[in-house]
Amino acid sequence: YVTRIWVREEGLAYECTCPMGEKRQFCKHAVAIALAHLEKERATIERDFALLQQAMMTVTQESLVVGLLRLAKQDPDLATELKRVCLDALQNQQPPPS
């Protein structure tokens, strides 16, 4: 069977030459193509994330802090998460030896 899937503003569109597809029902062939595409996207995101992680390991702590703070000014959710992480780190610090 010949199956195509594409994205429209209102969602996914599809065509398939199988009996269900010809009845305008979302067939297993369209589902298989959609799932394969999602898996490919997931693998790409994971690979990109790994490359980003490697690159970030080469950046100075100061550069990372400056960049995170710049982003946090634009994103209240990120700012809240950064505050939570910092508060947790402060609470888990060991007191200095006396």
Q: How would you summarize the topology of this molecule?
A:
Blueprint: E1 3-8, E2 11-16, H1 19-22, H2 28-56, H3 61-74, H4 76-92
Antiparallel strand pairs: 1-2
Helix pairs in contact: 3-4
Notes on the structure:
β1 (3-8) and β2 form a beta hairpin. The protein is of the alpha+beta class. 65% of the residues lie in helices and 12% in strands. α3 (61-74) packs across α4 (76-92). It contains four helices and two strands, in the order ββαααα. It has a two-stranded antiparallel ribbon. The chain has two domains: 1-58, no CATH class; 60-92, no CATH class. The termini are far apart.
Keywords:
alpha+beta; two-stranded antiparallel ribbon; 98 residues
Q: Going across the major beta sheet, what is the strand order?
A: 1-2
**Mean pLDDT over the full residue set:** 92
Number of strands: 2
Quickly count the helices. 4
Distance between the termini: 76 Å
Computed CA radius of gyration, to the nearest angstrom: 23 Å
Q: Which descriptor suits the 3D outline?
A: elongated
Order of helices and strands: EEHHHH
Task: Tell me the domain tally.
Answer: 2
Main sheet: strands, sense, barrel = 2 strands, antiparallel
Structural class: alpha+beta
List low-pLDDT spans: none
Q: Give the helix proportion (percent range).
A: 55-70%
Portion in beta strands:
5-15%
